[in-house]
User: Fold this.
Amino acid sequence: MRDALRLILPKLAKVIHNLSKFALKFKDLPTLAFTHYQAAQPISLGRRAAQWAQDLAMDLEDIEYALVGLRFRGAQGTTGTQASFMEIFQGDTEKIDRLNEILCEKAGFEACYDISTQTYTRKADLRIANALSAFGASAIRIATDIRHLAHDKILDEPHEATQTGSSAMAFKSNPMRSERICSLGRKLSNISANFSDTFSSQWLERTLDDSAIRRIDIPEMFLLTDALLILLDDVTNGIVVFPAMIRAQLEEEVPFMAMETVIMKLARKGVSRQVSHERIRVHSRETVERMRSEGTKNDLIERIRKDDFFEPIWDELDHMLDPKLFIGRSTDIVERYCGSGGPLRGKLEKYRSYIDSTATATLAV
Assistant:
């Protein structure tokens, strides 16, 4: 498991690096945000990717912690008392300690667990499984977001020129990599339950019902992790963005969001906030009703321009509709987290050689 953890950590670092680059590239591109999967205040596309990167960075920390905490079982005897070795070495405890030092050196571990029985505590397995299961959950979360955004035609995962999206509908371009990530991630994110059951079922000094299931779960856990990292590397290294569709989506929602600014500007000019609110409520409701029942575009701004009540702010309307006015500190947040001197750069530095020298695998889907 130690060697397997050492193999997957650089791969995870590369995926985080991919997302960091993407976040910085699109740090100031406004896009519609969603809460409850309903349109909400815009953020930048890079800000969303930075969130994905931070989730994976947490997984990186957890896996590193699990790796650093690994110890060797050593020579402990049948119940962990070292009684047999006391007999062999005629009570010389220094020789027993030296034996374990030699065993650790040969196996490449810093030390033994302070307390073990015939086996090391299965809590160690559970600690690793928890970290990898959490990564599986992160993978699902990111891939699910990509699937939703692909549905909205905001962005898409990479596709080969000859890739078939659907065997029945030739026009389709399904996010098959992200779907596969969700499928494998579902298995990985739940595998820690097996390790929890195995650990909690170890009676007293030990039982053997841990053996068969560990032979299945441990290899499977690492194979799932490796497969997910290969897929995530491919997807995050080739995300395709459609700025025109992002603008079109914003144009349908930003007029509603700009109305708060309209109310504040009118208030500064001495207009009653309550009266402004009611006029906007009526116009907004009529706009939404037409959009839903007739399929029309958002005409709220046109309504405001035709209503003399809003004449004091007519000349400011165009400026109020700039999506960048609504993304807050998105750009700064991305730069501080992903940019030079940011915490993410520091976390990835030890993996820099791997990141710079490793090409993304080409997948045939």
